[in-house]
Write a structure and sequence with these properties.
- The protein is mostly helical.
- Helix content is 79%, strand content 0%.
- Helix 1 packs antiparallel against helix 2 and helix 3 runs antiparallel to helix 4.
- The two termini are 25 Å apart.
Length: 107
């Protein structure tokens, strides 16, 4: 289940086990690639880890999934989610443009 992978990945990230956290977050994306929140959580972690190369790739992938996601997750039940996802993505894009720290080495 993707939500369990996200929760565990976030927990591992809080413990500074970036490799294990990344593995769990990537698994969540494999399990539910259509769900925007999984992508956003991974991108937020990549910002924290200063993995600008992977972040740039994930930003492009997220933008590509948006048209289908907007068709799938519609209606009043999703209004707040889209408000939140849009806001978070704007923050990610803004921070990605300002990140001048060294790129994290991928293992």
């Amino acid at each position: 289940h993707a939500r369990a992978r996200v929760a565990y990945g976030s927990f591992l990230g809080d413990l500074n086990d970036e490799d294990a956290a990344q593995e769990q977050l990537e698994k969540a994306l494999e399990l539910a690639p259509e769900f925007p929140d999984n992508h956003l959580l991974f991108m937020e972690a990549l910002l924290k880890w200063r993995d600008t190369k992977t972040l740039a790739e994930k930003i492009v992938a997220y933008q590509a999934l948006l048209p289908e996601a907007k068709k799938k997750f519609t209606g009043a039940d999703w209004d707040y989610e889209w408000f939140d996802w849009t806001r978070r993505f704007q923050v990610i894009q803004s921070k990605a443009k300002r990140t001048d720290a060294p790129v994290r080495e991928n293992k």
